[in-house]
Amino acid sequence: MTNITPYIFKVQRYSIHDGPGIRTTLFFQGCPLACQWCHNPESQAMGQVPEVKNIGELVESLVLEIERDRIFYDESGGGVTFSGGEPLAQPKLLLPLLSACREQEIHTCLDTCGFAPFNIFKAAATAADLVLFDIKIMADQDHQIFTGKPVGQILENLKNFSRQFPHIREKMKLRFPLIPARTDTRDNIRQIIEFITRQTPYRDIHILPFHTSGDGKYERLKMKNKLKHICPPTVEHLEEVRQMFAAKGFNAIIGG
Ligand code: SF4
User: Which of 188, 230, 223 is nearest to 207 (CA)?
Assistant: First the structure.
């Protein structure tokens, strides 16, 4: 297909992560955050915002690409996942794509860090079939240091949409990236459990273990990898964290 940068930096077919079944994942270029553990660091720089006159063509070509694997979606209960980067950072592309997929009856999943203005989040989450929402760090200062942005808007979105908008609440799933020495402190996990318990109806959480698959990219891009010497969590540590959630009544699942 045509060069889709700077809007989408990668299209991955036959993906079995980030949503049910076999999926095509579109990785959007640009993210408001810069998480130290990001395994797609090439996605962080914001692409040029697409010109409105090009959007129709771009959406059409992307939907054609997505439709190529419809047979696999139908057989596996899959569809398309919009990931990134942060898809909500490019609403002029994301929103028409979500509508076009709905028209074609293709299941859509929005994979988001939750850092987005209220109206954009609401419009996209309403149009998507499934929303994967990451909750990372509760302490504002730590969130700022480790992701580059404050946490307030993310928590507000999570709280508001899970409380006030039942049609969005029902399609959201929470995920917690377990990053050694960043998100995995007992204090942070306790605060996350407390926030979810008090402010949302969710009692399911997916724990996503840190992995080092993005390491080579940092070298290639000449970006500083602040987690270079950090190892993925051990099985024992994962289980310990899973039990912290389970002890508070959560159905905690390792993996996405
Ligand atoms: S939110 Fe995701 S894509 Fe954005 S910097 Fe963090 S890990 Fe990378």
Answer: 188
Answer yes or no: is pLDDT of 67 > 60: yes
Question: 161-182: buried (b, 16+ CB within 10 Å) or exposed (e) per residue?
Answer: bbeeeeebbebbbbbbbbbbeb
* Structure token pair of residue 221: 């891009």
pTM beyond cutoff 0.70: yes
Q: What is the CA radius of gyration of the chain?
A: 18
Sorted by where each starts, the structural domains of the chain and their CATH numbers stand as 8-254 (3.20.20.70)
- Other beta carbons less than 10 A from residue 186's beta carbon: 10
Query: pLDDT tens across 234-255, in order?
Result: 999 999 999 999 999 999 999 9
**Strands across the sheet containing 204-209:** 8-15, 23-28, 79-83, 108-112, 130-134, 172-178, 204-209, 251-254
From 31, 44, 111, 149, the mutation candidate for ligand 1 (largest count of ligand atoms within 8 A of CB) is 31
Ligand 1, atom 8, residue with closest C-alpha: 38
35 lines ligand 1 (CB under 6 A): yes
